[in-house]
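Lab notebook, bench 4. Still working through the backlog of constructs that have no structural model yet. Next entry is a single chain of 233 residues. Request: give me the C-alpha coordinates for it.
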Amino acid sequence: MITVSIHQPHFFPWLNYFNKVAKANVFIWLDDVQYRRRYFQNRAKIKTQNAELWITVPIKKADYLAEIKSIEILEDSMFKMIKTIKSLYVKAPFFNDYFEDVSLILSANHQYLSELNYSLFTYFNRVLGITTQIVKSSEINVGTVANPNKRLVKLCSHFNATHYIAGKGGKNYMDLELFKRNNIEILWQEFPNQSIVYPQINGTFVPGLSVLDVLFNVGAEQTRKFINTEWRS
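Model written out:
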Protein backbone atom coordinates (compact mmCIF):
# COMPACT_ATOMS: atom_id res chain seq x y z
CA MET A 1 0.00 0.00 0.00
CA ILE A 2 1.44 3.35 -1.07
CA THR A 3 -0.48 6.44 -0.03
CA VAL A 4 0.10 9.81 -1.69
CA SER A 5 -1.23 13.21 -0.69
CA ILE A 6 -0.88 16.41 -2.71
CA HIS A 7 -1.35 20.03 -1.71
CA GLN A 8 -0.38 23.50 -2.81
CA PRO A 9 2.13 25.33 -0.57
CA HIS A 10 0.54 27.23 2.30
CA PHE A 11 1.98 29.81 4.69
CA PHE A 12 1.91 28.60 8.32
CA PRO A 13 -0.59 25.79 7.53
CA TRP A 14 -3.21 24.56 9.98
CA LEU A 15 -3.41 21.13 11.60
CA ASN A 16 -5.32 19.26 8.89
CA TYR A 17 -2.63 20.18 6.36
CA PHE A 18 0.00 18.43 8.46
CA ASN A 19 -2.38 15.54 9.11
CA LYS A 20 -2.57 15.02 5.35
CA VAL A 21 1.23 14.98 5.23
CA ALA A 22 1.70 12.68 8.21
CA LYS A 23 -0.79 10.07 6.97
CA ALA A 24 0.89 9.68 3.56
CA ASN A 25 3.96 7.81 2.41
CA VAL A 26 4.65 10.55 -0.13
CA PHE A 27 3.54 14.17 0.01
CA ILE A 28 3.73 16.17 -3.21
CA TRP A 29 4.33 19.91 -2.78
CA LEU A 30 2.28 21.28 -5.67
CA ASP A 31 4.33 24.35 -6.56
CA ASP A 32 3.94 24.51 -10.34
CA VAL A 33 0.24 25.36 -10.61
CA GLN A 34 -1.39 28.78 -10.83
CA TYR A 35 -0.96 31.02 -7.81
CA ARG A 36 -4.21 31.78 -6.01
CA ARG A 37 -4.59 35.34 -4.83
CA ARG A 38 -5.98 36.29 -1.41
CA TYR A 39 -5.71 32.73 -0.18
CA PHE A 40 -3.63 30.67 2.25
CA GLN A 41 -0.54 30.57 0.03
CA ASN A 42 0.70 33.87 1.47
CA ARG A 43 -1.39 34.34 4.60
CA ALA A 44 -2.47 32.55 7.78
CA LYS A 45 -4.69 33.02 10.82
CA ILE A 46 -3.25 33.60 14.29
CA LYS A 47 -4.82 34.82 17.57
CA THR A 48 -5.50 38.21 19.09
CA GLN A 49 -7.62 38.90 22.16
CA ASN A 50 -10.77 36.77 21.63
CA ALA A 51 -10.45 36.89 17.83
CA GLU A 52 -8.42 35.80 14.82
CA LEU A 53 -5.98 37.88 12.80
CA TRP A 54 -4.71 37.42 9.25
CA ILE A 55 -0.96 37.79 8.80
CA THR A 56 0.12 38.21 5.18
CA VAL A 57 3.39 37.92 3.29
CA PRO A 58 3.58 40.95 0.94
CA ILE A 59 4.30 39.85 -2.61
CA LYS A 60 5.30 41.56 -5.83
CA LYS A 61 2.81 42.00 -8.62
CA ALA A 62 2.81 39.05 -11.01
CA ASP A 63 1.05 37.85 -14.12
CA TYR A 64 -2.43 36.53 -13.43
CA LEU A 65 -1.41 33.04 -14.63
CA ALA A 66 1.88 32.97 -12.73
CA GLU A 67 2.82 29.68 -11.09
CA ILE A 68 3.24 29.50 -7.33
CA LYS A 69 6.98 28.88 -7.58
CA SER A 70 7.52 32.17 -9.45
CA ILE A 71 5.82 34.50 -6.93
CA GLU A 72 8.33 36.89 -5.36
CA ILE A 73 8.29 38.47 -1.90
CA LEU A 74 8.66 42.22 -1.42
CA GLU A 75 12.12 42.98 -0.01
CA ASP A 76 12.52 43.71 3.70
CA SER A 77 8.84 43.09 4.36
CA MET A 78 8.87 40.58 7.22
CA PHE A 79 10.00 42.66 10.22
CA LYS A 80 6.49 43.88 11.02
CA MET A 81 5.10 40.34 10.94
CA ILE A 82 7.81 39.05 13.27
CA LYS A 83 7.06 41.89 15.69
CA THR A 84 3.31 41.11 15.55
CA ILE A 85 3.82 37.42 16.25
CA LYS A 86 6.08 38.21 19.19
CA SER A 87 3.69 40.73 20.72
CA LEU A 88 0.75 38.30 20.53
CA TYR A 89 2.48 35.11 21.70
CA VAL A 90 5.36 36.15 23.96
CA LYS A 91 3.41 34.95 27.02
CA ALA A 92 2.49 31.58 25.48
CA PRO A 93 3.93 28.58 27.39
CA PHE A 94 6.05 27.26 24.51
CA PHE A 95 6.87 30.57 22.79
CA ASN A 96 10.59 30.40 23.57
CA ASP A 97 10.86 26.89 22.12
CA TYR A 98 10.05 27.97 18.56
CA PHE A 99 10.00 31.74 18.11
CA GLU A 100 13.70 32.20 17.46
CA ASP A 101 13.74 29.49 14.77
CA VAL A 102 10.59 30.83 13.12
CA SER A 103 11.82 34.43 13.18
CA LEU A 104 15.14 33.40 11.62
CA ILE A 105 13.29 31.70 8.76
CA LEU A 106 10.99 34.68 8.26
CA SER A 107 13.90 37.12 8.21
CA ALA A 108 16.13 35.07 5.88
CA ASN A 109 15.37 37.28 2.85
CA HIS A 110 13.85 34.57 0.70
CA GLN A 111 13.29 35.81 -2.85
CA TYR A 112 10.33 33.55 -3.58
CA LEU A 113 7.21 32.87 -1.53
CA SER A 114 7.48 29.15 -2.23
CA GLU A 115 11.01 29.11 -0.79
CA LEU A 116 9.81 30.75 2.41
CA ASN A 117 6.85 28.40 2.70
CA TYR A 118 9.03 25.37 2.05
CA SER A 119 11.56 26.42 4.72
CA LEU A 120 8.78 26.83 7.28
CA PHE A 121 7.06 23.62 6.16
CA THR A 122 10.19 21.47 6.50
CA TYR A 123 10.99 23.08 9.85
CA PHE A 124 7.56 22.21 11.24
CA ASN A 125 7.86 18.69 9.85
CA ARG A 126 11.11 18.24 11.80
CA VAL A 127 9.59 19.68 15.00
CA LEU A 128 6.54 17.42 14.67
CA GLY A 129 8.52 14.30 13.81
CA ILE A 130 6.94 13.88 10.36
CA THR A 131 9.11 11.60 8.22
CA THR A 132 6.93 11.43 5.10
CA GLN A 133 8.83 11.69 1.82
CA ILE A 134 8.37 15.24 0.47
CA VAL A 135 8.69 15.89 -3.28
CA LYS A 136 8.10 19.11 -5.21
CA SER A 137 5.82 18.66 -8.22
CA SER A 138 8.09 20.97 -10.21
CA GLU A 139 10.80 18.32 -9.89
CA ILE A 140 8.61 15.47 -11.19
CA ASN A 141 8.49 14.98 -14.95
CA VAL A 142 4.96 13.91 -15.87
CA GLY A 143 4.83 15.92 -19.08
CA THR A 144 2.32 18.63 -19.95
CA VAL A 145 -1.10 17.72 -18.59
CA ALA A 146 -3.79 20.38 -18.87
CA ASN A 147 -6.55 18.45 -17.10
CA PRO A 148 -6.13 18.82 -13.30
CA ASN A 149 -7.59 15.37 -12.53
CA LYS A 150 -5.31 13.66 -15.03
CA ARG A 151 -2.35 15.49 -13.57
CA LEU A 152 -3.18 14.31 -10.06
CA VAL A 153 -3.44 10.74 -11.33
CA LYS A 154 -0.12 11.03 -13.18
CA LEU A 155 1.60 12.37 -10.07
CA CYS A 156 0.15 9.54 -7.99
CA SER A 157 1.07 6.94 -10.59
CA HIS A 158 4.64 8.25 -10.67
CA PHE A 159 4.98 6.81 -7.16
CA ASN A 160 2.87 3.70 -7.87
CA ALA A 161 0.24 4.98 -5.46
CA THR A 162 -2.55 2.65 -4.41
CA HIS A 163 -4.32 5.32 -2.33
CA TYR A 164 -4.76 9.08 -2.56
CA ILE A 165 -5.74 11.29 0.39
CA ALA A 166 -8.22 13.95 -0.69
CA GLY A 167 -9.97 16.70 1.21
CA LYS A 168 -13.76 16.58 1.40
CA GLY A 169 -13.97 19.51 -1.01
CA GLY A 170 -12.55 17.25 -3.70
CA LYS A 171 -15.91 15.52 -3.98
CA ASN A 172 -17.12 18.59 -5.89
CA TYR A 173 -14.55 18.43 -8.69
CA MET A 174 -12.60 15.17 -8.71
CA ASP A 175 -13.10 12.61 -11.48
CA LEU A 176 -13.52 9.58 -9.25
CA GLU A 177 -13.87 7.19 -12.18
CA LEU A 178 -10.49 8.30 -13.52
CA PHE A 179 -8.84 7.36 -10.23
CA LYS A 180 -10.74 4.07 -10.17
CA ARG A 181 -9.60 3.19 -13.70
CA ASN A 182 -6.02 3.76 -12.57
CA ASN A 183 -6.47 1.53 -9.50
CA ILE A 184 -6.10 4.40 -7.04
CA GLU A 185 -8.47 4.37 -4.08
CA ILE A 186 -9.60 7.71 -2.66
CA LEU A 187 -9.27 8.21 1.09
CA TRP A 188 -11.45 11.16 2.09
CA GLN A 189 -9.79 13.14 4.85
CA GLU A 190 -12.19 13.61 7.76
CA PHE A 191 -9.88 15.52 10.08
CA PRO A 192 -11.86 17.28 12.89
CA ASN A 193 -9.98 20.57 12.64
CA GLN A 194 -12.77 22.76 14.03
CA SER A 195 -13.43 20.49 17.02
CA ILE A 196 -9.86 20.28 18.34
CA VAL A 197 -9.64 22.33 21.54
CA TYR A 198 -6.51 23.15 23.55
CA PRO A 199 -5.41 25.70 26.18
CA GLN A 200 -4.98 28.98 24.29
CA ILE A 201 -3.85 32.39 25.51
CA ASN A 202 -5.58 35.68 24.65
CA GLY A 203 -9.09 35.05 25.85
CA THR A 204 -11.85 33.05 24.18
CA PHE A 205 -10.73 29.96 22.27
CA VAL A 206 -10.65 30.28 18.48
CA PRO A 207 -10.49 26.99 16.50
CA GLY A 208 -8.79 26.24 13.19
CA LEU A 209 -5.79 28.55 13.50
CA SER A 210 -2.27 28.11 12.18
CA VAL A 211 0.02 25.38 13.48
CA LEU A 212 2.02 28.26 14.97
CA ASP A 213 -0.78 28.97 17.46
CA VAL A 214 -0.94 25.33 18.50
CA LEU A 215 2.82 24.95 18.95
CA PHE A 216 3.18 28.15 20.98
CA ASN A 217 0.31 27.14 23.27
CA VAL A 218 0.78 23.39 23.82
CA GLY A 219 4.15 22.42 22.31
CA ALA A 220 5.27 19.75 19.85
CA GLU A 221 4.23 16.63 21.78
CA GLN A 222 0.56 17.61 22.03
CA THR A 223 0.51 19.08 18.51
CA ARG A 224 1.90 15.79 17.22
CA LYS A 225 -0.98 13.94 18.87
CA PHE A 226 -3.46 16.26 17.18
CA ILE A 227 -2.03 15.83 13.68
CA ASN A 228 -1.90 12.06 14.07
CA THR A 229 -5.63 11.88 14.77
CA GLU A 230 -7.04 8.82 13.01
CA TRP A 231 -9.98 9.27 10.67
CA ARG A 232 -9.65 6.37 8.21
CA SER A 233 -12.13 3.50 8.26
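Notes after review: The domain at 3-227 is CATH 3.40.50 (Rossmann fold). The chain is about 35% helix and 15% strand. Flag for follow-up if needed.
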